[in-house]
Write a structure and sequence with these properties.
Structural class: mainly alpha
Radius of gyration: 29 Å
Shape: elongated
Strand content: under 5%
Distance between the termini: 41 Å
Largest sheet: none
């Protein structure tokens, strides 16, 4: 996007003000109807065709050729021609034919309002596709608007959601067909936070400058196309698909669930651990609903009386991190004294008794015991890099949770259980959700 804007701004010798206006038009940072400038451009093209007496003969090639010679045409400002040029050439001319059709529809003899409407629609559709391709949060614009309004009104104009806000928002907004899933709502909140804090602009002007000009930073306009915790996912996948199975299937499943909410959990421990706790409950309810379960069964599950509490979730994260460290310790032990697999070598001096016992249990696994020490060392070497990444991610999450006082955590859990139970009942017991 930046290259496209820079090229057009330079070609048309736009001033800083014009450059800023063009950037805001492209990203849709226009108060009210964000495509109002496209409507104005279509009217300008219509007037140009009428007033120069060439109705039916105006085409995109001619307009851009005139612009290249310094002629903008009647009723077409330098900014209007620059916008038209941008639309025609954006993404390496991928939308040129659509923009040419738009100009033809608007300026054709006898086109009238029908031709105008068709041409304007083509302009809007082309720019929308460009925005979706280059603005990672464009498709979530409506969701971001709802989150922004809720957070700002609920917290006296706050711009960034706080821990617990996603839970409260979902409990208030969830209904059949809208904001239904808490985990998806949390992901939207985290994307909103990311967009709000984004400081890399894809245009030639800074986000701060655009904000002063009316740009809503919640839209997002970076060149990055995703904010998922890719390194965590890749590390889990590398360990899960390795020749040697160092983690159990249930552990891999748990890690994937953690990875799915880890980005949000880093910033909002309460919201993240709530997803780990109540997300599975909602999954059960969804399946029960699909199976046409009895209302009594739905009500029983929705009450959230049988769930893994926050303390237990933290214990599970701790256990998963320890499992990773145990395998890493075994690898270090084998590497320190190749061929020694009974846990009594030099590396053992750095391990506590409990770790020693767990390592001995690891070595009794069939997939471990059937390998020579050299083979085991080689196989473990393939998974250790992934385990290092996983353990580091878990350690970071646990540090955030450790800063959450135990009393406050248990009070939050009680309040959250009530909120989730009420919302689940509304979604799955007392409605057709």
């Amino acid at each position: 996007m930046q290259n496209d804007l820079d090229a057009i701004s330079e070609a048309h010798r736009l001033s800083r003000i014009e450059r800023d206006k063009l950037a805001r038009i492209v990203i849709g940072a226009i108060p009210g109807n964000r495509d109002r400038p496209l409507h104005a451009l279509a009217r300008a093209l219509q007037r140009h065709a009428d007033r120069v007496g060439r109705a039916g003969e105006v085409d995109l090639f001619g307009l851009l050729a005139d612009a290249a010679c310094g002629r903008t045409g009647y009723g077409l400002s330098r900014l209007s021609v620059a916008l038209l040029d941008f639309l025609a050439t954006m993404d390496g001319y991928q939308h040129f034919d659509s923009i040419a059709d738009a100009v033809a529809a608007i300026t054709a003899e006898g086109a009238g309002e029908d031709g105008f409407a068709r041409g304007r629609s083509l302009l809007s559709a082309s720019l929308h596709r460009y925005r979706v391709d280059h603005m990672p949060y464009e498709t979530r614009r409506q969701a971001f608007t709802e989150i922004h309004r809720w957070v700002a009104s609920d917290r006296a104009g706050a711009q960034i959601p706080g821990d617990g806000d996603a839970i409260a928002f979902w409990a208030e907004m969830a209904e059949d067909g809208a904001w239904t899933t808490y985990v998806a709502t949390l992901a939207a909140f985290d994307d909103f936070r990311e967009a709000r804090t984004l400081r890399t602009s894809a245009s030639a002007v800074s986000l701060d400058a655009l904000a002063e000009a009316g740009f809503d930073a919640a839209i997002g306009m970076g060149d990055e196309t995703g904010r998922e915790n890719a390194s965590f996912d890749e590390a889990i996948e590398s360990v899960a698909t390795a020749k040697i199975k160092v983690l159990k299937g249930v552990e891999v499943t748990s890690l994937k669930r953690v990875a799915a909410v880890s980005q949000a959990m880093t910033h909002w421990p309460r919201c993240g651990v709530a997803a780990l706790t109540f997300g599975p409950v909602q999954n059960v309810l969804v399946q029960l609903k699909r199976d046409h379960a009895a209302p009594e069964k739905l009500a029983e599950v929705a009450a959230c009386l049988d769930f893994t509490d926050y303390d237990s979730q933290i214990s599970e994260l701790t256990r998963l991190a320890r499992s990773c460290r145990d395998v890493m310790s075994l690898y270090a032990k084998l590497a320190a004294d190749a061929g020694l697999i009974d846990g009594t070598g030099p590396a053992a001096s750095t391990l506590d008794a409990d770790t020693e016992k767990r390592i001995i249990q690891l070595l009794r696994r069939r997939s471990f015991a059937e390998l020579t020490s050299e083979e085991l060392l080689e196989r473990l070497g393939e998974v250790v890099p992934g385990l290092v990444d996983i353990e580091a991610q878990l350690a970071a999450l646990l540090r955030g949770l450790a800063a959450w006082p135990e009393t406050a955590r248990r009070e939050a859990m009680a309040a959250d259980r009530a909120a989730f139970a009420n919302t689940f009942s509304r979604l799955y017991v007392f409605s057709g959700g």
